[in-house]
Task: structure prediction
Amino acid sequence: MIFKTAKINAFRTWGLLLTMIGMGLMVLGTAGVVFWGQAGKIVAGIGLVLGLITMMGSLGIYFWAGMLSTSAVQIQCPECAKQTKMLGKTDRCMFCRTMLTLDPNVANITAEEVEAQRAEVESSETPDSKINAPVSTHHDTTQKL
Result:
């Protein structure tokens, strides 16, 4: 539970990770010239191109997170009383990581109760019933990205 965060923050984290990887590839590629001289130019070229591609991926993720952020619902967190943005029907507070929902069916249910309900449903199903089971309309409060 400690690594759970708001969806927008998760997108930004992936963007930052790609930025760091891209910069690392560029630096390591350029270091090829230092270690191998003229033969390292090929390594430098490959490192710079791969770094540029990952930096462009980072740019795309940051742009996507920004566009999602502009259309996100702003609500006040009941725990920390700060304004936070929410994507979808369930999300976490960007500051205190409290589960937030706009779905009244899952409101006031703790994460442990949701896990217990899920475990109860999974244990009561047989392998044959999983194949022909109808699609559930229940929204999980512990969605993964």
Summary: The helical segments are 7-36, 40-71, 111-124, 127-131.
